Amino acid sequence: ASRATAGVRRLKAYDPGHDLVALRERFGELALVELGSNENPYGASPAARGAILDELHALHRYPDPRGGVLKRALAEKHGVDACRIVLGNGSHELLMQLAQVFAGPGDEVVFSQFGFAVFALATQAAGASACVVPALGVDDPMPLGHDLDAIAAAITPATKLVYVANPNNPTGTWFARERFARFMAAVPPDVIVVMDEAYAEMADAAAQTDARPLLEQHANLVITRTFSKGYALAGMRVGYAMAAPELVAVMERVRESFNVNGPALAACAAALGDEAHLAWSCERNAEQRVALSEALRSRGLRVPPSQTNFVLVELGERTSKIEAALLERGVVLRPMRGYGLPTYSRITIGTRDENRRLLAALDEVLA
Ligand code: PMP
């Protein structure tokens, strides 16, 4: 380890929170209520599944290194030119590459406290310095959310990159595009702003979180999205970034030539063609988000508002004990100890049946 760079030496390997393979064996896959990883329980579009099967004859071939078909489908969906799109092995990979490309030793990267965990990881791996901006307070209408004014004020001449997530994980909080437009106007044009929109498809239209209309105006804006959440293709590992063609061209230089595999490219292109499935699963999620938030609040628990497929819930001093007791009952949540929020748990919004089983177990544990 001593041979690794200073940034890498301080890194910890990803901790999924639980050994899910062992838990599935212990409880049986159907009995286990997996609400720890913000996965979409409604599953991928049947068209995406079919597209993967159609790719099986070509497993001995390398995939299209340009991902042309998928890029064209994305370009059409978003109304942008394909030269504004770069594909990643999950948006996680793109978030890492953005720091690798734009920030090095001596440079600063700014992001919010309780911002998506990969922001800190990417910054450290690149050897840059993290400037962590305090989050909004617990009594703010967006408890623990991004304080955009403070983030803009934290930018110095050494700042190369700013990461924001909208909506954010693990807080679930968001800000409106109008607010973000004012933020962008305050950021110097030589500072790159990465807007992580992993949960974009799951946010209500009324929340107006979508930053796409700002892309044309701001050559320093990068929007990342993923097929892992709304499209329920987390296992395929595909994300993409939209940005000015010059930025995309630089990103294209560092990515591995075949970073998105053939079945994944085919599945995502097919998923884009099935808008009804996307809408159906996001509607189910939004319904359950309201129902689960209300059910938790009616038990006297504090739940910050969310526009995602998870909620953060304050369980207080007994959080670890409650989490352990739920796990004994086959209910998996994501502990927030390692995220600086030890009195909170993050609960992925499941199907109606999963949420009912979660609440029943919680009632037993809290009784
Ligand atoms: N951004 C946010 C805010 C996320 O919550 C996640 C997944 N948990 C990602 C990015 C990465 O997703 P993926 O690599 O699957 O695209």
TrEMBL record:
Keywords of this entry: Amino-acid biosynthesis, Aminotransferase, Histidine biosynthesis, Pyridoxal phosphate, Transferase
GO MF terms held by the record: histidinol-phosphate transaminase activity; pyridoxal phosphate binding
Keyword Amino-acid biosynthesis attributed: yes
CDD domains attached to this UniProt entry: AAT_like
EC top class named in words: transferase
Keyword Cell membrane attached: no
Pathway: Amino-acid biosynthesis; L-histidine biosynthesis; L-histidine from 5-phospho-alpha-D-ribose 1-diphosphate: step 7/9
Gene3D superfamilies xref list: Aspartate Aminotransferase, domain 1, Type I PLP-dependent aspartate aminotransferase-like (Major domain)
All residue ranges annotated as the Aminotransferase class I/classII large domain in the record: 33-362
EC number: 2.6.1.9
GO biological process, one term: L-histidine biosynthetic process
Residues where N6-(pyridoxal phosphate)lysine is found: K229
Entries under InterPro entries matching the protein: Aminotrans_II_pyridoxalP_BS, Aminotransferase_I/II_large, HisP_aminotrans, HistidinolP_aminotransfase, PyrdxlP-dep_Trfase, PyrdxlP-dep_Trfase_major, PyrdxlP-dep_Trfase_small
Transmembrane annotation, as ranges: none
Cofactor: pyridoxal 5'-phosphate
Reactions performed catalytically: L-histidinol phosphate + 2-oxoglutarate = 3-(imidazol-4-yl)-2-oxopropyl phosphate + L-glutamate
HAMAP family: HisC_aminotrans_2
The family this protein is said to belong to: Belongs to the class-II pyridoxal-phosphate-dependent aminotransferase family. Histidinol-phosphate aminotransferase subfamily.
Assembly behavior: Homodimer.
The protein, known as: Histidinol-phosphate aminotransferase
Organism placement in taxonomy: Bacteria, Pseudomonadati, Pseudomonadota, Gammaproteobacteria, Lysobacterales
